[in-house]
Amino acid sequence: MFGLVQVASFLRRELPIRLAHRVQDLEKVPLMKDMQSVKEVKQLYIQSFLELLEFDKKIVSADQEQAFSRLVEGIYERHSRVLVQMARGAYEFRHHIHKKSTSTKNKSKNTNIRRKDVFAKMEETHAFLDRFYLCRIGIRVLIGQYLALRQPPVDHYVGIICGVTSPYEIVKRAIDDAAFMCTRKYGDAPEVIMSGRLDLTFPYVPTHLHYIMLELLKNSMRATVIIADGSDNEDVVIKVSDEGGGIPRSNVKKIWSYLFTTADPSIQEGMVGVVENEAVDHGIDSPLAGLGYGLPISRSYCRYFGGDLSIMSMEGYGTDAFVYLARLGNTKEPVPI
After folding, report:
1. Cα–chain-centroid distance for residue 122?
2. Domain tally for the chain?
3. What are the pLDDT digits (tens) for 48-106?
4. How many other CB atoms sit within 10 Å of the CB of residue 160?
5. Kind of pairing, strands 223-228 and 318-326?
6. At what angle do helices 62-78 and 2-28 cross, to 10 degrees?
7. Do 126 and 166 fall within a single domain?
């Protein structure tokens, strides 16, 4: 219990700082800060920040620690829908930009200047969203680890970290989930073949790896998955290859944008109107092509633990995705202020 008191004391100091930085970010991001969904997310962060400030500054007893765990568990659950809420904000932002550019298209001689100004704001928005989501992952890892440590021990786990995470087992589950989603939408799902180091295990957070692989397989679904590793390799690498026609070169940079999506407008509108209680981070009740967040969020999950995600594509043939996973324990948290 003494260890949990220490962890709770650390979170009591650390979480308000992190939440305050995110509130400041949400207040400053150009244009997007005015979107209704983004305003709601900001209020959510302010509420959590104030609740933490009102709690005892020093946690020294088991009763205080237990009360604190209830508080942060409520915050953790409340923030589980932020991903979809911010996706709504991005949708509203795209709609706002499109409407504004259409209305001013033939009304001003300074159209090119206005477009450059909007583009600059969108670049700033991309940087903000990258920073926001990386920091959000950090907050959820800290709270999730603390809450998991309070539960009865599970073999091979320390909190949310599994010491013997099996990429093969995780990918197999992701294939099943992606196949379910594909069958539900199209009536069938193509086969996915796995090869390589199927016996490999290493320390990682299984839920993060599942999210990454599900997003890649949803985009592929006619794929070959290769798991590569060696005792001298810097990373565990998972390659997902498909022959689905590839990505046009002009769209390759856009796939990392939170403001770009290939989803049908009706799907986007449906996601914007999704029921709050059903809109959680790692659910399978989402369309194959959602609101354009899958790849950039997956890259953030990789980068949080010192890895990365890259895409190479040949239009007319197919796409290769490379997931680089750093073994936990030898990287620093890459969270910006």
Report:
1. 20
2. 2
3. 999 999 999 999 999 999 999 999 999 999 999 998 899 889 888 888 887 776 665 55
4. 19
5. unpaired
6. 30
7. no
